[in-house]
Amino acid sequence: MSKNRPHARRAARSRAFQVLYSLQFSPSTTLGDVRTAFLEMPDPTDADMDENAETREEKLYGFAWELVEGVWSNVKNLDSVIERFSQNWRVDRLGKIELTLLRLAVFEMLYRADVPPKVAINEALELSTRFGDAKAKSFINGILDAAIKAQEAGTLTVAGKADA
Fold first, then answer.
1. The pLDDT of residue 156
2. Cβ atoms within 10 A of the Cβ of 122, count?
3. What is the chain's alpha carbon radius of gyration, rounded to the nearest angstrom?
4. Residue 8 has pLDDT above 90, yes or no
5. Are 139 and 98 in contact (CB under 8 A)?
6. Domain count, the chain
7. Is residue 108 part of a domain?
8. Helix axes 75-85, 96-111, angle to 10 degrees
9. Are 70 and 77 in contact (CB under 8 A)?
């Protein structure tokens, strides 16, 4: 594992969050629309690079795209998990930032074997500090902590998860 991988993954999560957040304002009905939104999202890390087809391909098939595609494709399952642990809060009443962060973290916890659940939670809290309201951090942590405990206890399984 290269030394840059954690930093690269954090940047990828940030990009995925921004794309997924933007999709809440202009919902995409097809994966092609999601792909277009993903590719059109400005990336501050390569603002001064001349973007060529190869760079766009790397973006498309990298970790950030895997997160965007995974969250978008599994949003109903993710929302049902979030609602289960967000005591007295319906998903449609949650703030868009918080909901996006929760979807991203729950996706990583449930669908990404290469991401330890504690890392998914920590990364969501880091993104919350960067993009969210100060009060949201404990709310997000509470929901994700309850979800991880249920997962560890075997009472949280993924409906409709395809075995890879």
1. 86
2. 14
3. 16
4. no
5. yes
6. 1
7. yes
8. 110
9. no
Checking if the pLDDT of 119 tops 70, the result is yes
Distance CA(36)–CA(28), nearest Å, equals 10
**Predicted pLDDT at 108:** 97
Distance CA 72, CA 49 (A): 28
Q: What is the pLDDT of residue 1?
A: 42
| Per-residue pLDDT tens over the stretch 53-101 | 555 556 556 999 999 999 999 999 999 999 999 987 888 889 999 999 9
Read off the pTM.
0.84
Q: Supply the DSSP symbol for 44.
A: G
Q: Measure the CA–CA gap between 35 and 19, rounded to whole angstroms.
A: 10
> What is the distance in angstroms between the CA of the first residue and the CA of the last residue of the chain?
22
Q: 93 lies in a domain?
A: yes
The enclosing domain of 104 has a CATH number of 1.10.940.10
Assess if residue 164 is contained within a domain: no
DSSP percent split of the chain into helix, strand, coil, nearest 5: 70, 0, 30
Domain that holds residue 113: 6-153
The reply to whether 149 falls in a domain is yes
